[in-house]
Design a protein that fits this description.
By secondary structure, the chain is of the alpha+beta class. About 55% of the residues lie in helices and about 20% in strands. A hairpin with a 4-residue loop joins strand 3 and strand 4. Helix 1 (about 10-35) runs antiparallel to helix 2, helix 1 (about 10-35) runs parallel beside helix 3 (about 70-95) and helix 3 (about 70-95) packs antiparallel against helix 4. The longest helix is centred in the N-terminal third of the chain and has 27 residues, at about 10-35.
Length: about 200
């Protein structure tokens, strides 16, 4: 019946974790540089590459506000980090550093998954409102919230607020602000379904 484009509910928590995840990846690259440097035949070019990439990963969270298309820049950074980890594992495995190679490979797979999850989270999604309830997107699927679970639902300005009967409140940021007539109609529908 109604469909509103919203910011993903998990976007705020992902944004708080973003600097830590890029920082940990940067530290891993710095440790990779140490591992390459301390080998029997150090590869100075590769050590310098890991140092540069580690520094760039550590600085990315501080510079990310300057990007106009932040989601795309973050996805490219995760893609590069994941690719470098997966290919670096080949270097460590070929130099008989099996444990390091397997750890870096596992981190590369983890970064690929994190990149995919962040890509999905930073995209605009839709909340669907109909006679059965409100469908809210989650990390992997949608959750249907029935009208019988809610005390009140209100759309005001650019915020959809759901007050649950278990004293929980959920605020969703609406990206496309409806006109005054549309939100009055929606609020009337919400009140008719909640009562």
């Amino acid at each position: 019946m109604y469909k509103l484009r919203i910011l993903h509910p998990n976007a705020a928590s992902r944004l708080r974790l973003l600097p830590a995840m890029h920082g940990l990846t940067g530290i891993l690259f710095l440790f990779n540089a140490i591992g390459v440097y301390r080998g029997p035949q150090p590869n100075w070019i590769l050590a310098g590459f890991f140092l540069a990439l580690g520094g760039a990963s550590l600085l990315f969270p501080f510079r990310m506000k300057r990007f106009k298309k932040f989601g795309e820049a973050n996805s490219v950074a995760r893609l590069v980090q994941s690719f470098v980890c997966l290919t670096a594992s080949l270097y460590f495995l070929s130099h008989a550093q099996v444990i390091t190679g397997l750890i870096v490979f596992a981190v590369g797979l983890g970064l690929a998954y994190i990149g995919w999850a962040e890509y999905k989270t930073f995209q605009a999604v839709f909340v669907k409102i109909d006679m059965t309830g409100i469908s809210v997107p989650t990390s992997f699927s949608e959750k249907l919230i029935g009208w019988n679970e809610l005390n009140n639902v209100i759309l005001r300005n650019d915020l959809l607020t759901m007050d649950f009967k278990n004293n929980r409140i959920l605020h969703l940021d609406v990206l496309d602000e409806p006109t005054k007539e549309q939100w009055e109609t929606m609020n009337a529908f919400f009140q008719s379904r909640v009562k």
